Amino acid sequence: MATDILLIGGSAGSITVLLQVLPAIDTDISFPIVIVLHRKSYPKSELDHLLEISTALPVQEVDDKMELENGKIYLVPADYHLLFEDERSIALDVSEKVNYSRPSIDVTFLSAVSIFGDRTVALLLSGGNKDGVEGLVSIVEHHGRVLIQDPVTAEVDYMPQQAMEALPMATILRPEHMADAINQLKHYK
Amino acid sequence: MMELDIIKDDEMDLLLEDVSTIYGYDFTQYSKASLKRRLNRICLIDKLASFAELRYQVVNDPSYLQRFVEEITVNVTEMFRDPYFYKKLREDILPKLGTYPFIRIWVAGCSTGEEAYSIAVLLQEINLYHKSLIYATDINPTVIEKASKGIFPLSKMKQYSENYIHAGGTQDFSSYYVAMYDIAKFHESLSKRILFSTHNLVSDSSFNEFQLILCRNVLIYFDKDLQNKVFRLFDNSLQNLCYLALGDKETLRFSSLESRYRQVKDQKIWQKLN
Predict the structure, then answer these.
(1) What is the CATH number of the domain that holds A49?
(2) Which of B76, B251, B263, B266 to mutate to test the interface with A (most CBs of A within 10 A)?
(3) B195-211 pLDDT tens trace
(4) Which domain covers residue A169, as residue numbers?
(5) What domains lie within chain B, and their CATH numbers?
(6) pLDDT tens digits, residue range B12-25?
(7) A44 interaction partners in chain B (CB closer than 8 Å)
(8) Which of B16, B92, B26 lies closest to B54 in space, CA to CA?
């Protein structure tokens, strides 16, 4: 199945993985990448700059109603949930935290699957809570594709461990294999 | 909370048409993604198992409407959210407005009032409150009622106090309220120059001329056409050379007003040009 969107969710311990994976992602990928990370809203983080200098792909923190373009990386801002309005545009939302988190990985994953269905791909990284697991389950139910960081390689293994237990058949990846798996996605039709 | 998918897109449109026709609340230009989550959420909280049940309840029980409006609009807010923004108000924007004989401020979409009280604190500390008036409005009468009481959860005060300090506050934040059990009741000296009132940005018109309008994290729930309509409303309500403040991820760019406003450096604050 072709990929229309790649979602990456992570919490504690996920930034080092991203800094390893993003530089090796091909610049001709045929879909946008949306990254949802748990992080503090204050002080303002330099995360987008950190990610930006790690990769040749354009990286930006999203603004309200921004239109997504293929081959670009979008970072969900701290203290907002990100929803998909339609296949091209996003909407931000400051409603209640979900799983003690805003942004919540589940909120974005579930919104994506309601718009992109089986063309949704999600990768869940290191983290210390179970945010994202429900979203992954829903993506699998809609025949999308799910990738999980091998908990053995995770700085904090609770999140990928929970995901693996909920989805025993999911693809488990070590960080050094993630970019390859992502680059392969453009070949699926 | 579990995320449910009870309401379909076409059903949502149907319900919004009903609400607009019967009650005059027009949500048809709200952002669909967010609204759908809210509708699913209210079904979950109020134990409505299907779209048909929700629609029956809304159409046939006028007393349910207020709750419906309260639940489908987002009422999450905090004091001194984005401390840098409040620091800029304190150190630059409000002192400039202090040269006016009288300062009218509109907090549009004020929800439970946290922003209005934050502004009142700033104005008091820079000795401008006596000649200011804050109009705090929201679509939702229930939150306006709450806002006018000035009572907030005590559990939030630690975070608000940190925000306040990051925003340049130098007082002991707890001197602004009295703690009772699990609530913090803010002093009436703070609310005495705040006028709380309902106002619907979708359907109501301009009601005064202001020197500062704050509408932060409200427009994210509107589609682009409605955003432009509300920008025009603000434009009609703002004195020349005065200021419009939006949420951290909202922008006046791409709107028809852009050319007549100048953005304050590094801030989501725009000054209306002459």
Answers:
(1) 3.40.50.180
(2) B76
(3) 999 999 999 999 999 99
(4) 5-187
(5) 9-72 (no CATH), 83-272 (3.40.50.150)
(6) 999 999 999 999 99
(7) 84
(8) B16
